[in-house]
Amino acid sequence: MKELFNEKLTGRIEACGVIAVLVIDRVEDAVPLAKALLAGGIDVMELTLRTPAAIEALKEIKRNVHEMIAGIGTILTPDQVMEAKDAGAEFGVAPGMNPRVVAKAKEAGLPFAPGICTPSDIEAALEHGCRLLKFFPAETSGGLAHLKNMSAPYMHLGLKFIPLGGLDQNNLASYLADPSVAAVGGSWIAKRDMIKANDWAAITAAAAKATETVKAIRGK
Prior knowledge:
By secondary structure, the chain is α/β, with parallel strands linked by helices. The chain has ten helices and nine strands.
């Protein structure tokens, strides 16, 4: 079965090591936010559909910051898959494993990572050709120890995970060192209040610190 993520895109995500996961309230913040992340070495971002601004923010980034790989997260319905695809999202992410949503992503040709936290979730994702999976919520589901034990029976199938939820600079290195982790979802790098305050310098600093950790662990 065809994988929903192509090798080139997966490679870019693994090379970055940290995906900035963002809640954006104002469209006008989108471009300076993307530039602040790039200045810190992060070139993959996920705009979550938790505010009305997300889709227009994505369009602004696609028009003005071509170096950034920008996707849409918190996709909960098939209609949102098409909304993300039509806006130019390069990938989609969901908090859970909804077969209808994944089927629509396959139909639309949108690279997609569903959320999993149990073996049954993994098997449902495998049925739909998913090999890059979001492990969510990571820390409250048992953290890295849970991920290792849960994923062990499936690793010969080439699975990779993006843990998100409760991660920060303090536990980033331990996750990145695990061979099953493609990248980490980094919501701490540009928190909602930091974006609202236009604190681009702090966002760049947080991104740079995370990038340094990626390089230290992976030698990239």
